[in-house]
Design brief:
The complex is a heterodimer.
Chain A (H helix, E strand, L loop, with lengths): L1 H9 L16 H26 L9 H4 L2 H26 L3 H31 L8 H34 L3 H34 L1
Helix pairs in contact in A: 2-6, 2-7, 4-5, 4-7, 5-6, 6-7
Chain B lengths: L1 H14 L10 H23 L6 H22 L11 H29 L6 H5 L3
Helix pairs in contact in B: 2-3
The chains are: A mainly alpha, B mainly alpha.
Chain lengths: 207, 130
Protein backbone atom coordinates (compact mmCIF):
# COMPACT_ATOMS: atom_id res chain seq x y z
CA UNK A 1 0.00 0.00 0.00
CA UNK A 2 2.71 2.36 1.06
CA UNK A 3 4.79 1.35 -1.96
CA UNK A 4 2.01 2.48 -4.26
CA UNK A 5 1.81 5.67 -2.32
CA UNK A 6 5.50 6.34 -2.86
CA UNK A 7 5.21 5.60 -6.58
CA UNK A 8 2.30 7.96 -6.92
CA UNK A 9 4.21 10.80 -5.44
CA UNK A 10 7.36 10.17 -7.47
CA UNK A 11 5.77 9.86 -10.90
CA UNK A 12 2.39 8.81 -12.12
CA UNK A 13 2.37 5.15 -13.15
CA UNK A 14 0.74 4.81 -16.53
CA UNK A 15 -0.84 1.50 -17.48
CA UNK A 16 -2.22 2.55 -20.87
CA UNK A 17 -0.59 3.15 -24.21
CA UNK A 18 0.36 6.78 -24.52
CA UNK A 19 1.35 6.62 -28.19
CA UNK A 20 -1.03 7.84 -30.81
CA UNK A 21 -3.56 5.41 -32.19
CA UNK A 22 -3.45 4.12 -35.72
CA UNK A 23 -4.99 6.52 -38.15
CA UNK A 24 -8.67 5.80 -38.68
CA UNK A 25 -8.40 5.96 -42.44
CA UNK A 26 -5.65 3.53 -43.29
CA UNK A 27 -6.17 3.13 -47.06
CA UNK A 28 -2.81 4.74 -47.76
CA UNK A 29 -0.99 2.43 -45.37
CA UNK A 30 -2.71 -0.59 -46.88
CA UNK A 31 -1.82 0.51 -50.37
CA UNK A 32 1.76 1.11 -49.28
CA UNK A 33 1.89 -2.48 -47.96
CA UNK A 34 0.64 -3.68 -51.35
CA UNK A 35 3.42 -1.71 -53.06
CA UNK A 36 5.97 -3.27 -50.73
CA UNK A 37 4.74 -6.75 -51.68
CA UNK A 38 4.96 -5.71 -55.32
CA UNK A 39 8.50 -4.59 -54.59
CA UNK A 40 9.28 -8.17 -53.52
CA UNK A 41 8.05 -9.51 -56.87
CA UNK A 42 10.46 -7.18 -58.64
CA UNK A 43 13.26 -8.05 -56.22
CA UNK A 44 12.91 -11.72 -57.14
CA UNK A 45 12.87 -10.90 -60.86
CA UNK A 46 15.96 -8.68 -60.43
CA UNK A 47 17.70 -11.51 -58.58
CA UNK A 48 16.78 -13.90 -61.40
CA UNK A 49 18.21 -11.51 -63.94
CA UNK A 50 21.31 -11.07 -61.79
CA UNK A 51 21.86 -14.82 -61.86
CA UNK A 52 20.94 -15.50 -65.49
CA UNK A 53 21.88 -12.17 -67.08
CA UNK A 54 25.27 -13.39 -68.36
CA UNK A 55 24.10 -16.69 -69.84
CA UNK A 56 23.84 -15.79 -73.51
CA UNK A 57 23.82 -19.39 -74.84
CA UNK A 58 26.17 -18.24 -77.62
CA UNK A 59 23.50 -15.71 -78.58
CA UNK A 60 23.46 -11.90 -78.66
CA UNK A 61 24.67 -9.95 -75.62
CA UNK A 62 23.13 -6.71 -74.27
CA UNK A 63 25.80 -4.66 -76.07
CA UNK A 64 24.62 -6.16 -79.39
CA UNK A 65 20.92 -5.67 -78.70
CA UNK A 66 20.19 -2.57 -76.64
CA UNK A 67 19.94 0.90 -78.12
CA UNK A 68 20.73 3.18 -75.18
CA UNK A 69 19.35 6.24 -76.98
CA UNK A 70 15.96 4.56 -77.04
CA UNK A 71 16.28 3.63 -73.36
CA UNK A 72 17.21 7.22 -72.49
CA UNK A 73 14.11 8.55 -74.29
CA UNK A 74 12.00 5.92 -72.54
CA UNK A 75 13.41 6.94 -69.17
CA UNK A 76 12.66 10.59 -69.94
CA UNK A 77 9.04 9.70 -70.84
CA UNK A 78 8.47 7.93 -67.51
CA UNK A 79 10.19 10.69 -65.53
CA UNK A 80 8.09 13.37 -67.27
CA UNK A 81 4.91 11.40 -66.59
CA UNK A 82 5.92 11.28 -62.92
CA UNK A 83 6.30 15.04 -62.62
CA UNK A 84 3.06 15.74 -64.54
CA UNK A 85 1.21 13.38 -62.20
CA UNK A 86 2.68 15.43 -59.35
CA UNK A 87 1.23 18.57 -60.98
CA UNK A 88 -2.15 16.84 -61.25
CA UNK A 89 -2.02 16.15 -57.50
CA UNK A 90 -1.18 19.82 -56.81
CA UNK A 91 -4.19 20.90 -58.91
CA UNK A 92 -6.35 18.39 -57.02
CA UNK A 93 -5.24 20.09 -53.80
CA UNK A 94 -6.45 23.40 -55.24
CA UNK A 95 -9.78 21.75 -56.09
CA UNK A 96 -9.30 22.61 -59.77
CA UNK A 97 -11.13 19.81 -61.58
CA UNK A 98 -10.38 20.86 -65.15
CA UNK A 99 -6.65 21.42 -64.56
CA UNK A 100 -6.39 18.09 -62.74
CA UNK A 101 -7.92 16.34 -65.73
CA UNK A 102 -5.56 18.11 -68.16
CA UNK A 103 -2.46 17.09 -66.18
CA UNK A 104 -3.77 13.53 -65.83
CA UNK A 105 -4.27 13.50 -69.60
CA UNK A 106 -0.68 14.67 -70.21
CA UNK A 107 0.52 11.96 -67.80
CA UNK A 108 -1.42 9.43 -69.85
CA UNK A 109 0.20 10.62 -73.08
CA UNK A 110 3.70 10.22 -71.62
CA UNK A 111 2.74 6.82 -70.22
CA UNK A 112 1.43 5.72 -73.64
CA UNK A 113 4.66 6.97 -75.28
CA UNK A 114 6.67 4.88 -72.81
CA UNK A 115 4.61 1.77 -73.54
CA UNK A 116 4.77 2.37 -77.30
CA UNK A 117 8.58 2.64 -77.25
CA UNK A 118 8.87 -0.47 -75.10
CA UNK A 119 6.62 -2.50 -77.41
CA UNK A 120 8.63 -1.20 -80.39
CA UNK A 121 11.82 -2.41 -78.69
CA UNK A 122 10.32 -5.83 -77.88
CA UNK A 123 8.97 -6.20 -81.41
CA UNK A 124 12.39 -5.50 -82.93
CA UNK A 125 14.18 -7.84 -80.54
CA UNK A 126 11.83 -10.69 -81.42
CA UNK A 127 12.11 -9.85 -85.12
CA UNK A 128 15.92 -10.09 -84.87
CA UNK A 129 15.56 -13.57 -83.39
CA UNK A 130 16.33 -12.34 -79.87
CA UNK A 131 13.01 -13.39 -78.36
CA UNK A 132 12.50 -14.73 -74.83
CA UNK A 133 13.26 -18.29 -75.97
CA UNK A 134 16.74 -17.44 -77.32
CA UNK A 135 18.77 -17.57 -74.09
CA UNK A 136 18.46 -17.47 -70.31
CA UNK A 137 19.53 -13.82 -70.42
CA UNK A 138 16.70 -12.91 -72.80
CA UNK A 139 14.14 -14.98 -70.83
CA UNK A 140 14.91 -13.11 -67.61
CA UNK A 141 15.11 -9.79 -69.48
CA UNK A 142 11.67 -10.17 -71.04
CA UNK A 143 10.17 -11.36 -67.75
CA UNK A 144 11.54 -8.44 -65.73
CA UNK A 145 10.95 -5.62 -68.22
CA UNK A 146 7.67 -7.18 -69.37
CA UNK A 147 6.35 -7.32 -65.79
CA UNK A 148 7.19 -3.64 -65.38
CA UNK A 149 5.49 -2.85 -68.68
CA UNK A 150 2.42 -4.80 -67.58
CA UNK A 151 2.28 -2.70 -64.41
CA UNK A 152 2.42 0.49 -66.47
CA UNK A 153 -0.35 -0.90 -68.70
CA UNK A 154 -2.62 -1.49 -65.71
CA UNK A 155 -1.66 1.93 -64.38
CA UNK A 156 -2.84 3.42 -67.70
CA UNK A 157 -6.18 1.57 -67.47
CA UNK A 158 -6.54 2.84 -63.90
CA UNK A 159 -5.64 6.38 -64.99
CA UNK A 160 -8.24 6.45 -67.78
CA UNK A 161 -10.88 4.99 -65.45
CA UNK A 162 -10.14 7.67 -62.85
CA UNK A 163 -10.26 10.45 -65.46
CA UNK A 164 -13.79 9.32 -66.39
CA UNK A 165 -14.72 9.12 -62.70
CA UNK A 166 -13.39 12.61 -61.95
CA UNK A 167 -15.13 14.03 -65.02
CA UNK A 168 -18.44 12.45 -63.97
CA UNK A 169 -18.41 12.88 -60.19
CA UNK A 170 -15.85 15.62 -59.61
CA UNK A 171 -13.13 15.68 -56.98
CA UNK A 172 -15.13 14.04 -54.18
CA UNK A 173 -13.36 12.33 -51.24
CA UNK A 174 -13.55 8.91 -52.92
CA UNK A 175 -11.90 10.12 -56.10
CA UNK A 176 -9.25 12.01 -54.13
CA UNK A 177 -8.41 8.82 -52.25
CA UNK A 178 -8.17 6.89 -55.54
CA UNK A 179 -5.99 9.56 -57.12
CA UNK A 180 -3.67 9.39 -54.08
CA UNK A 181 -3.36 5.62 -54.49
CA UNK A 182 -2.63 5.86 -58.20
CA UNK A 183 -0.09 8.59 -57.45
CA UNK A 184 1.82 6.21 -55.18
CA UNK A 185 1.53 3.40 -57.75
CA UNK A 186 2.78 5.60 -60.59
CA UNK A 187 5.76 7.01 -58.69
CA UNK A 188 6.56 3.49 -57.46
CA UNK A 189 6.77 2.25 -61.06
CA UNK A 190 9.21 5.06 -61.80
CA UNK A 191 11.34 3.91 -58.85
CA UNK A 192 11.37 0.35 -60.24
CA UNK A 193 12.37 1.72 -63.65
CA UNK A 194 15.47 3.34 -62.09
CA UNK A 195 16.56 -0.18 -61.12
CA UNK A 196 15.74 -1.50 -64.59
CA UNK A 197 17.70 1.07 -66.60
CA UNK A 198 20.66 1.04 -64.19
CA UNK A 199 20.95 -2.68 -63.61
CA UNK A 200 19.59 -4.26 -66.79
CA UNK A 201 20.40 -1.78 -69.56
CA UNK A 202 23.43 0.23 -68.45
CA UNK A 203 25.28 -2.54 -66.62
CA UNK A 204 24.27 -4.97 -69.38
CA UNK A 205 25.78 -2.81 -72.12
CA UNK A 206 28.82 -2.15 -69.95
CA UNK A 207 29.40 -5.92 -69.92
CA UNK B 1 13.58 21.31 -30.31
CA UNK B 2 10.25 21.52 -28.51
CA UNK B 3 8.41 21.80 -31.82
CA UNK B 4 9.55 18.26 -32.55
CA UNK B 5 7.66 16.94 -29.57
CA UNK B 6 4.55 18.83 -30.53
CA UNK B 7 4.61 17.60 -34.11
CA UNK B 8 4.70 14.00 -32.88
CA UNK B 9 1.39 14.48 -31.12
CA UNK B 10 0.00 16.43 -34.06
CA UNK B 11 0.47 13.57 -36.50
CA UNK B 12 -2.79 12.02 -35.46
CA UNK B 13 -4.68 15.14 -36.39
CA UNK B 14 -2.82 15.51 -39.64
CA UNK B 15 -3.82 12.03 -40.72
CA UNK B 16 -7.40 11.82 -39.53
CA UNK B 17 -8.58 14.08 -42.34
CA UNK B 18 -8.43 11.19 -44.76
CA UNK B 19 -5.15 11.94 -46.51
CA UNK B 20 -2.46 9.50 -45.51
CA UNK B 21 0.80 10.66 -46.99
CA UNK B 22 1.92 14.26 -47.23
CA UNK B 23 1.27 16.10 -50.45
CA UNK B 24 4.37 18.01 -51.24
CA UNK B 25 4.53 21.35 -52.96
CA UNK B 26 5.39 22.63 -56.42
CA UNK B 27 8.85 23.44 -55.14
CA UNK B 28 9.30 19.94 -53.73
CA UNK B 29 8.27 18.30 -57.00
CA UNK B 30 10.58 20.55 -59.03
CA UNK B 31 13.56 19.84 -56.75
CA UNK B 32 12.90 16.12 -57.13
CA UNK B 33 12.50 16.45 -60.90
CA UNK B 34 15.72 18.41 -61.44
CA UNK B 35 17.68 16.05 -59.17
CA UNK B 36 16.25 13.07 -61.05
CA UNK B 37 17.27 14.50 -64.43
CA UNK B 38 20.83 15.05 -63.21
CA UNK B 39 21.00 11.62 -61.56
CA UNK B 40 19.65 9.97 -64.72
CA UNK B 41 21.92 11.87 -67.12
CA UNK B 42 25.15 11.06 -65.27
CA UNK B 43 24.96 7.23 -65.50
CA UNK B 44 23.83 7.34 -69.15
CA UNK B 45 26.71 9.71 -69.95
CA UNK B 46 29.19 7.47 -68.09
CA UNK B 47 28.17 4.38 -70.06
CA UNK B 48 27.37 5.86 -73.49
CA UNK B 49 30.40 8.14 -73.54
CA UNK B 50 32.75 5.51 -72.14
CA UNK B 51 34.10 8.19 -69.84
CA UNK B 52 35.96 6.00 -67.36
CA UNK B 53 38.53 3.35 -68.19
CA UNK B 54 37.63 1.08 -65.30
CA UNK B 55 34.45 -0.91 -65.98
CA UNK B 56 34.13 -1.95 -62.35
CA UNK B 57 34.31 1.66 -61.14
CA UNK B 58 31.71 2.71 -63.74
CA UNK B 59 29.39 -0.12 -62.64
CA UNK B 60 29.74 0.83 -58.97
CA UNK B 61 29.04 4.49 -59.83
CA UNK B 62 25.96 3.61 -61.92
CA UNK B 63 24.47 1.48 -59.13
CA UNK B 64 25.39 4.04 -56.47
CA UNK B 65 23.76 6.90 -58.36
CA UNK B 66 20.73 4.65 -58.95
CA UNK B 67 20.33 4.16 -55.21
CA UNK B 68 20.61 7.92 -54.62
CA UNK B 69 17.94 8.56 -57.26
CA UNK B 70 15.62 6.00 -55.64
CA UNK B 71 15.99 7.87 -52.34
CA UNK B 72 15.26 11.19 -54.13
CA UNK B 73 12.07 9.70 -55.63
CA UNK B 74 11.02 8.28 -52.27
CA UNK B 75 11.41 11.64 -50.54
CA UNK B 76 10.18 14.12 -53.17
CA UNK B 77 7.62 12.08 -55.16
CA UNK B 78 6.38 9.45 -52.71
CA UNK B 79 6.68 11.88 -49.76
CA UNK B 80 8.23 9.32 -47.46
CA UNK B 81 9.07 10.54 -44.00
CA UNK B 82 9.50 8.73 -40.68
CA UNK B 83 6.28 10.19 -39.32
CA UNK B 84 3.73 9.35 -42.03
CA UNK B 85 1.02 6.96 -40.82
CA UNK B 86 2.57 7.00 -37.37
CA UNK B 87 5.83 5.57 -38.68
CA UNK B 88 4.26 2.41 -40.09
CA UNK B 89 5.10 3.14 -43.73
CA UNK B 90 8.75 3.51 -42.72
CA UNK B 91 8.61 0.24 -40.77
CA UNK B 92 7.12 -1.57 -43.77
CA UNK B 93 9.78 -0.03 -46.04
CA UNK B 94 12.66 -1.07 -43.78
CA UNK B 95 11.25 -4.59 -43.46
CA UNK B 96 10.90 -4.82 -47.25
CA UNK B 97 14.43 -3.54 -47.80
CA UNK B 98 15.79 -6.24 -45.47
CA UNK B 99 13.87 -8.97 -47.33
CA UNK B 100 14.95 -7.54 -50.72
CA UNK B 101 18.56 -7.48 -49.55
CA UNK B 102 18.39 -11.11 -48.39
CA UNK B 103 16.69 -12.21 -51.63
CA UNK B 104 19.18 -10.41 -53.90
CA UNK B 105 22.39 -11.13 -52.02
CA UNK B 106 21.33 -14.68 -51.15
CA UNK B 107 20.39 -15.58 -54.74
CA UNK B 108 23.60 -14.21 -56.21
CA UNK B 109 25.74 -15.80 -53.50
CA UNK B 110 24.16 -19.24 -53.67
CA UNK B 111 24.04 -19.38 -57.45
CA UNK B 112 27.63 -18.16 -57.77
CA UNK B 113 28.80 -20.98 -55.52
CA UNK B 114 26.71 -23.53 -57.36
CA UNK B 115 28.35 -22.39 -60.58
CA UNK B 116 31.92 -22.50 -59.30
CA UNK B 117 31.51 -25.74 -57.36
CA UNK B 118 29.81 -27.57 -60.19
CA UNK B 119 31.26 -31.01 -60.82
CA UNK B 120 33.64 -30.70 -63.76
CA UNK B 121 32.24 -32.32 -66.86
CA UNK B 122 34.18 -35.03 -68.62
CA UNK B 123 34.15 -35.40 -72.36
CA UNK B 124 31.93 -38.49 -72.05
CA UNK B 125 29.33 -36.62 -69.98
CA UNK B 126 29.32 -33.74 -72.44
CA UNK B 127 28.51 -36.13 -75.25
CA UNK B 128 25.62 -37.70 -73.42
CA UNK B 129 24.03 -34.39 -72.52
CA UNK B 130 20.39 -34.03 -73.52
Amino acid sequence: MSATQVQNTDEKPQFYVTEEHHPENSTMLGFWLYLMSDCLIFAVLFATHGVLGRNYAAGPSPADLFDLNLVAINTAMLLLSSITYGFAMLQMERNAKMETLVWLGITGVFGAAFLGLELYEFYHLILEGAGPTRSAFLSSFFTLVGTHGLHVTFGMIWLITLMVQVKKHGLNPENRRRLMCLSMFWHFLDVIWIGVFSFVYLLGVLG
Amino acid sequence: MSSHHESASDTHHAHSDGHGAGHGSFKGYMIGFVLSIILTAIPFWLVMGGVLDSKLFTAVLVMGIGVVQIVVHMVYFLHMNPRSEGGWTMMALIFTLIIVGIALAGSLWVMHHLNTNMMPMTHEMMKNMP
